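TEACHING EXERCISE
Course module: macromolecular assemblies
Task: Read the component lines below, then compare them to the predicted structure of the full complex.
Student: A.B.
Group: 4
Components provided:
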Amino acid sequence: MKPINAATTGILLREDSIFERSSEGRAGFDIPTPKVPLKSPVKYRRTQPAALPEVSELQVVRHFTRLSSWNYAIDLGTFPLGSCTMKYNPRINEELASLPGFCDIHPELPPEFCQGALELIYNLEDALSKIVGLDACTVQPAAGALGEFTGLTLIRAFHEKHGSHRKYVLIPDSAHGTNPASCILAGYEAVPIKVGPQGYMSVESVEETIKQHGRDIAALMTTNPNTLGVFEQNISQIAELLHGIGAQLCMDGANMNAILGIAKPGDMGVDVMQYNLHKTFSTPHGGGGPGSGPVACRSHLAPFLPNPRVRKTENSFTLEYLPDSIGKVKGAFGNFGVMVRALAYIMNHGSDGLRQVSRNAVINANYLRARLQKKYQLGTQTAHFHECVLSDSKQIQANGVKTLQIAKALMDYGYHPPTVYFPLTVSGAMLIEPTETESLQELDQFAEALLEIAERIEAKKETFEQSPTKTFVGKVDEVGAARKPILSLDDRSI
Amino acid sequence: MASVPNGLHYTKEHEWVLMEDNIATIGITDFAQESLGDVTYIQLPKEGENITKNDPFGVVESVKAVSDLYSPVTGRVVEVNQPLLEAPELVNQDPYTDGWMVKVEVKDISDTEDLMEAAAYKEYIEEKG
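Instructor-supplied answer key:
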């Protein structure tokens, strides 16, 4: 099958900034002059009007519709951005999330007026706990990194409640990039652990670090399957070692899409973990959110979960405030609309369906791996789960073409590039995660595109320095953008 | 193939050190700048600050990644390459000359004893591919 998805031209209109369309006094609608006197204190009032563009409703509609036509989205094609799980967001999620009873309620409504919403939170927390085999869950954190922070803060609260002031969190270098940052925010120092040549942690490397730091270790934080798409085979033994010194095993669940219904982190000895509803559970991902990063934990950490907790009584749902809670990590209950979508997804699939999701995600990634290894060097030899890591070493050898050029060349075939130069442990890495929602035809076309690029590199007739050439905005000056960024209209003349 | 001049000491984190009496000039290697790609930002300590062997002393940011700079020696920073802060591309152009980063008054000149010589570093980066 040939890669027919190649980008072609169509009607794409150039677009100025909306400020350049502004005309003084123009407005989308008229606001009646208020009949009540202005009561706000003078010191809080604006002295000058905000510098907003003055445009009509149609100008706004055209501006953003035109810009959206330049965009690439999962609804247009394969989005193989590794470690991001860019799966399709089923339309039924949107339909349910837009029910007035869900989308028009105020977060401060007394519980008796929003029983359905509380029931949804309760059911989602219950389902998420069961999926990972842990005892309790909070859906309050707004995204993965906030979930990591929440998990580590639970660990900190637990240790301090027991009079133990620990210093370090161990992090394998295959872990998710945000992990070390979350450690620092939670008041810990990150100690890196090198992964072995197979792409996973060895028991010995953890033992060695424990010998060195002992009971100063608060936790080990690992992504499993890790960022190389490899399962941490020694995880249970590592959990035992940690528990032996009273430390906790914290898991980043960014890659849960590989193990739904197949392996439970609770069975591996994990004490606390976070999920990403915007990855695994099919809620929109990208564009700055909103996301959702629930945290599940064992019962010994549950007394510290963020307030308020939704409780089920005999005939209603109520709010409980835990005395030892770490407090709030997000306003109200978190990003509620995202929760509606995630529960819709879970209920729509059921436990068998979720297991099939992960099976297909793993099969799709391994299918691509098998096809692509004909022309590309694999990042690790160990079996991959739901993503595959390639390196550019063969292409550099053939004609000096690197990952960045390969990624940009792929755009001319009509695809979003994969994640590049991550994980850092693979030189010139391309991290490809097709997810379960791509069909065989789509996978074949995507593979053909990458294989054709490899063949063009081997033919040594092109350098790909100018790619992409078919996109609406061609090759951008990334270095110039970083060294001399244009951050406002006023900078543009520079 | 990345250039590896003789007469310098090299770290596993791809810094180079030139020792002249008790003054160490520190930068990153050709292999490092090649792997990083176009460098867009460099953060270095100020003159007079103390830096510690094996600890991060600065940050180098490229279009690909943000990496810590690890100090190969312990001592006090006596000079910072100011033009480099303004023009980080110097690191890509001349990592061993105009792209130097800091000069450090070294406490203990035996600090460089466990570092690699050119031949050993060459072997080390060849293994890394």
